[in-house]
Amino acid sequence: MKKSPSPLLLPLLAAALMLVGCGQKSEAPASGSAAAPADKKKLTVGLVQTGAEGAWRTANSNSMRDEAAKRGITLKLSDGQSKQENQLAAVRSFIAQGVDAIVIAPIVETGWDPVLTDAKKAKIPVVIMDRMVKVADQSLYVAFVGSDFAAEGRMAADWLAKNAGGRTKIVELQGEPGSSAANDRQTAFAAALKDHPEFKIIDSQTGNFRQAEGKQVMESLLKKHGKEIQIVYSHNDDMALGAIQAIEEAGFKPGKDILIVSVDAIEAALKAIVAGKMNVSVECNPLFGPKIYDTVEKILKGESVPKSSANKDQVFDATNAAAALPTRKY
Ligand code: AHR
């Protein structure tokens, strides 16, 4: 019969087993062997999102989730629900939890210095995603990855300059006030139109990047300006799609009576272009989860990363929207 060890020997046996375990762990796995991933420390990333304003944001969050799952990264996602105070609290909570890195999509540009200082003191690297921050000390974040919103505003203006066909009077639907996406798209668009003084922005109001608000704002703009409106410049597709509904309900033809110029190039916008209801959408690609985690992983390995890295975006109009639709993933 097998004799069980004396209870007095049990702690010694346990210690011996632990030593064996440690010995195995310290052995470097053969390169490319199946043992390599198990030895890799599993990263935890805290993602501070803006909210659920529309299709773009959903696609962006999904890209971050899917890529984290592929890489075996634990992603903790906090939804800011369109309030900066929620985002600030989420950053503080991630610092307290000791995550490996924090990724922030800031709703607005300002007000970040104190929490970013806390993250820096806690030695947790911060990557700014999608929208930019304005901080006094640039070392408070390690890198920015996102689209060049100013370039998007310029591309929208350039398209108009070539394709407006004599229409000149513009109403602008702005995105979330204080966001770099709205600020840069507005400023760059207006600046680019200075070279084309025939164009006039006759009104500019916010629809907060949301379809329902875009519709409401367009309804009131139509009541105020009526037939004077010849062009809508919308800071995103969700608002543009809302504006299209309002224009149709008012008895006008979007895309013909009123040109619709927008940003994002989501699938619904490409369909609207194919249907002749939208004229152009400047892409702002949200599917950059892989690029974000490449950046985070490099930072955590001590490798250098660019301070700012812009996604490549293109313009979609009647010449190329139909061809792009079958492979559009957002
Ligand atoms: O910050 C990017 C903008 O935010 C997208 O253009 C918009 O659709 C989203 O809500």
Outline the structure in words:
- The termini are far apart.
- The protein has a six-stranded parallel β-sheet, with helices on both faces. Strands 7-6-8-9-10-12 form a six-stranded mixed β-sheet, sandwiched between helices.
- It has helices spanning 10-26, 35-39, 55-71, 84-97, 113-121, 149-163, 180-193, 211-225, 237-249, 267-274, 289-300, 321-324, and strands at 44-49, 74-79, 101-104, 126-129, 143-146, 169-174, 200-206, 231-234, 259-264, 280-283, 308-310, 315-317.
- The chain is built from twelve helices and twelve strands.
- Helix 4 (84-97) runs parallel beside helix 5 (113-121).
- The longest helix is centred in the N-terminal third of the chain and has 17 residues, at 10-26.
- It has 330 residues and is α/β, with parallel strands linked by helices.
- The chain has two domains: 44-147 and 286-311, Response regulator (Rossmann fold); 149-285 and 318-327, Response regulator (Rossmann fold, 3-Layer(aba) Sandwich), CATH 3.40.50.2300.
- It binds alpha-L-arabinofuranose (AHR).
- The site of alpha-L-arabinofuranose has 13 residues, from helix 3 and strand 9.
